[in-house]
Design a protein that fits this description.
Layout lengths: L1 E5 L6 E6 L2 E4 L9 H5 L2 H6 L8 E2 L15 E5 L3 H6 L9 E4 L5 E2 L5 E3 L6 E2 L2 E7 L15 E8 L2 E2 H5 L6 H4 L5 E2 L4 E2 L11 E6 L2 E7 L7 H8 L10 E3 L21 E6 L3 E9 L9
Parallel strand pairs: 5-17, 7-13, 8-19
Antiparallel strand pairs: 1-2, 1-14, 2-3, 3-4, 5-6, 9-12, 10-11, 10-17, 15-16, 15-18, 18-19
Length: 287
C-alpha cells in the first residue's frame, strides 16, 4: 500500500494511492498516527474496498505522510562517500541526533529559509516509519517493526548546526525543514530497501545521485540499535542519513537562496519539489 495524507495545513486527512488515483479513507481511519499503527491500522486498510472510497483530486495539497510522531530521529555520516566528502572517518557506531517534529511539512510545500540564514543545505534521505513498539529488539527481527518507508529532505542550516555550539538539532529543526512524502510505502512495495537510487537536484542540476547500498549501517541494524537506547513508538520516524553531494561538501560550499527549486526522489518512493522562499513574519506554508 501507498499511504498519503492530504488537505490544508493542520487539517490533513488519510488516504491511499489506488490505481493511479488518490482515495479518501478518512471514513475508515481517523489519521496515520501512533494509535493507527499500534492498533493494526494497516490490516484494516488492506481489507477495505477502495473502489467505494471517494476520489481526491490531484490538485489537493499533500501533507506529511504521518501525523506528528513522538520522535523524529536522524542518523549522521551514514554513507561512505558522504563521510569522505565531509573529511570524516566512518563512525564505529551510528551518529544519532533529533529533528523537531514541528519541522515536518508536505512533500511539495515551500522551504522557508530561516531568518538571516546564509547556509541552508539539502540532504535527500530514506526515512523509516516504525509500525509497533520496539524496545531491545534483535537485528534479525527489526524488519517486523517497520510500517514503511518514505522520502525525506533533511534540510540543515550549517551555521546553526556547526558554528553555534551545542548539538546539531538547532540546525535541523527550523520550520519546513522536514518535507516528507509524497507517500508512505509499506515494505511489500519495496523489493530491496538496500538497493534504491536516491537523487536530488537544485535548479535542475543534479547534486546528489547515489544508492542506499552505500550505507554504513543498514536499516535493520539502525532500528535494532536505536531500540537499545529508547523505545521506538508506532509512527516514529528514523531518517537514515544522506549520500555525498550536499552543499557543504562542494568547494566552495553551495547553499540555498530564495528562488531556488529543489527536487528529489528515491526509487519506488516517488519525488518531491520545494520552492525556496525567504523568511517573513507569519510566513504561511504554500504548495
Amino acid at each position: 500500500m501507498k499511504l498519503i495524507r492530504f488537505g490544508e495545513v493542520g487539517k490533513e486527512k488519510p488516504g491511499l494511492l489506488h490505481k493511479g488515483q488518490r482515495v479518501d479513507v478518512s471514513a475508515i481511519v481517523p489519521d496515520y498516527n501512533e494509535d493507527f499503527f499500534q492498533n493494526d491500522g494497516l490490516k484494516t486498510l488492506a481489507q477495505i474496498d477502495l473502489e467505494q472510497c471517494p476520489i481526491v483530486p490531484d490538485s489537493v495539497r499533500l501533507g506529511p505522510v504521518v501525523k506528528r510522531p513522538s520522535k523524529f530521529i536522524c542518523i549522521g555520516i551514514n554513507y561512505k562517500k558522504h563521510a569522505k566528502e565531509s573529511g570524516m572517518e566512518l563512525p564505529n557506531e551510528p551518529v544519532v541526533f533529533f529533528k523537531a517534529p514541528s519541522a515536518m511539512v508536505g512533500p511539495n510545500d515551500d522551504l522557508i529559509l530561516p531568518k538571516n540564514s546564509q547556509k541552508t543545505d539539502w540532504e535527500v534521505e530514506l526515512a523509516i516509519v516504525i509500525g509497533k513498539k520496539a524496545s531491545y529488539i534483535e537485528k534479525d527481527h527489526a524488519l517486523d517493526y517497520i510500517a514503511g518507508y518514505c522520502l525525506h529532505n533533511d534540510y540543515s542550516e550549517r551555521e546553526y548546526q556547526l558554528e553555534r555550539c551545542g548539538q546539531w538539532v538547532k540546525g535541523k529543526s527550523c520550520d519546513s525543514f522536514a518535507p516528507l512524502g509524497p507517500f508512505l510505502a509499506t515494505p511489500d512495495e519495496i523489493d530491496n530497501v538496500h538497493n534504491l537510487r536516491l537523487w536530488l537536484s537544485v535548479n535542475g542540476v543534479i547534486k546528489q545521485d547515489a544508492n542506499t547500498s552505500d550505507m554504513a549501517f543498514n536499516v535493520p541494524f539502525l532500528v535494532a540499535y536505536l531500540s537499545n537506547f529508547m523505545s521506538l513508538l508506532p509512527g516514529d520516524i528514523i531518517s537514515t542519513g544522506t549520500p555525498a553531494g550536499v552543499g557543504l561538501g562542494f568547494k566552495p560550499p553551495q547553499y540555498l537562496k530564495a528562488g531556488d527549486v529543489v527536487e528529489l526522489g528515491i526509487e519506488g518512493l516517488g519525488s518531491s519539489r520545494q520552492n525556496c522562499k525567504a523568511w517573513a513574519p507569519s510566513q504561511p506554508i504554500k504548495k
